[in-house]
């Protein structure tokens, strides 16, 4: 099995074309995984759900989902300033 250390040691012997090809494959895999994670997260969300956000700036705050957009979710703070927030779907956790 190929380990990360073996791959790193092979990088210095690769041509620029090989490196570009490897870079492209890695970027495609990262984008695919991000996309599937975002779709999975969005499938669990619905308008009106009460959520918490996994981010230090929103610590201790609860939000109600108002709108689900293709890339992010519009939420309104429940207990507080009633401010609208635009939040990535993967950061939201439904509590009710």
Can you characterise this structure?
With 96 residues, this protein is an alpha+beta fold. It has one domain (14-94): Roll (SH3 type barrels), CATH 2.30.30. The chain contains two helices and five strands. It is elongated, with a radius of gyration of 20 Å. The termini are far apart. 8% of the residues are buried. The model has no long low-confidence stretch (mean pLDDT 91).
What would the keywords be for this entry?
96 residues, alpha+beta, SH3 type barrels, five-stranded antiparallel beta sheet, 39% helix
Task: Give the second-level CATH assignment, the architecture.
Answer: Roll
User: What integer is the average pLDDT?
Assistant: 91
Radius of gyration: 20 Å
In angstroms, what separates the terminal alpha carbons? Answer: 44 Å
Instruction: Estimate percent helicity.
Output: 25-40%
**Which regions contain 5 or more consecutive residues with pLDDT less than 50?**
none
Task: Give the strand order, joined by hyphens, for the main sheet.
Answer: 4-3-2-1-5
What is the CATH fold-level name?
Answer: SH3 type barrels
């Amino acid at each position: 099995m190929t380990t990360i250390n073996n791959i790193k040691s092979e990088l210095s012997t690769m041509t620029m074309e090989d490196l570009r090809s490897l870079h492209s494959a890695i970027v495609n895999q990262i984008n695919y995984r991000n996309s599937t994670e975002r779709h999975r997260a969005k499938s669990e969300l619905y308008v009106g759900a009460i959520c918490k956000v996994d981010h230090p700036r929103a610590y201790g705050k609860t939000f109600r989902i108002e709108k689900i957009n293709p890339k992010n979710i519009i939420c309104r703070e429940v207990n507080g300033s009633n401010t609208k927030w635009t939040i990535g779907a993967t950061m939201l956790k439904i509590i009710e």
